[in-house]
Amino acid sequence: MQTTRPNEFIALIAFLTALMAMSIDTMLPAVGLIANQLGAANPNDRQFIVLFFFLGMTFGQLIFGPLSDSFGRKPIIYIGLVLYAVGAFMCLVSTNYTMMIVGRMVQGFGGASPRVVSTAMVRDGAKGADMARIMSFVMSVFMLVPILAPSIGQLVLYVGSWRYIFAGFIVAAIIASLWLGLRQAETLAPENRHDFSPADLWASAKLVVNNRICLGYTLASGFIFSAFTCYLGTSQQIFAEQYGQGDKFALWFGGLAIAIALAMVFNGNYVKRLGMRMISKWAVRGFLVVWAMMLGASIVYAGHPPLIVLGLLLPWSFFCSGLTFGNINSLALEPMGHNAGMAAAISGFIASLMAVILGGVSGRFYDGTMYPISFAFLGFGALMWLAIEWAERGRTGEKSEA
User: Fold this and answer.
1) What is the percent of the chain with per-residue pLDDT over 90, rounded to a whole number?
2) pLDDT class for 202, splitting at 50, 70, 90?
3) pTM for this model (two decimals)
């Protein structure tokens, strides 16, 4: 029953980790069609298909991680996969938009379990460089998802109904459950488990909020994640409708995702030499420059910059975003020491909740032009820069890196 081949273990973890991204990116070409067929009242209501999945995920990650420390990794992943499949089935048979949105929230809540707990499974059996090596392979596979998944969703729409996409999610949950059950033993030994304690979560929350560095970088993570969430919610409207790309939307989305993958490769090669703080600060500055240029182009072209402008600027925006994701999260947890596990859950919850609220609200202002998106992204970039500067002022006795 134990997975004996390291490559198979990596593949299993990658599959469990990628399930969350698959559930978002595969849907994107279909969100407009789903909203229209199920009677969404407002064109921007399609964004709820993404946002409510994130909302479920936000609360799920706060609960499933600590529970897996008490009851073991596999049982909690099974529970999450069942909830994920139930949510997908609700979406599959939905007859109105409310049922679709509720199903997506349930699916996101359940999907948080394999995403969060699979990382803990790696930590159970590997530490330091070994864990970093495994996670680098996992993230390499993970980054293929946003590149390929929208094209898969578009292909499904060519041959059948959008409901087949949700059927595919159910099949993926079944495959994950069988693979985990038949090929992987429990990684958390009984003697290493401890009781789930809401008091511990509350204590960790106070540690995060009271530590200036941790809170500052958590807020910065929330702001960049807000921009990313806003993009996920509006990207189909921008490319498919505003710029008339239609079926080519999947190619645009996948092509831009390559910029994030390149950023992660760059970061992996240079982070030790340049440092996380220096890379993060320059990435934020680059992000601000890109969106100041996008706003300028929007003003010049009355809200509709030429598509070539988006093609030139957006890859740099995503490259800068990719440089911030991992570094800012790591910097937030840097001062947490022995409380890093619980602190990661709290920090992730705060950043995700910010993304759902701020990214969701900003997306609702989309009006068929690039004005709202440009203002929102420029604002998120400025707030991220301020949060980082505020956090760094709480660091004493260290030489500035930038």
Assistant:
1) 62
2) confident
3) 0.88
Q: What domains are there in the chain, each with its CATH number?
A: 1-184 (1.20.1250.20), 197-395 (1.20.1250.20)
Distance from C-alpha of 54 to C-alpha of 76, rounded to nearest angstrom? 19
Read off the pLDDT of residues 308-328 as tens digits, 9 standing for 90 and up. Answer: 999 999 999 999 998 887 788
181 Cβ contact list (under 8 Å, min separation 6): 74, 78
Angle at the Cα of 320 from the Cα atoms of 289 and 359, rounded to 5 degrees: 85
**Interatomic CA distance for residues 191 and 208, integer angstroms:** 28
Query: C-alpha distances in angstroms, 60 versus 95, 109, 124, 181, 188?
Result: 26, 5, 21, 22, 20
Rounded to 10 degrees, what is the CA torsion of 138, 17, 317, 28? 130
Angle between helices 48-71 and 97-125 (to 10 degrees): 40
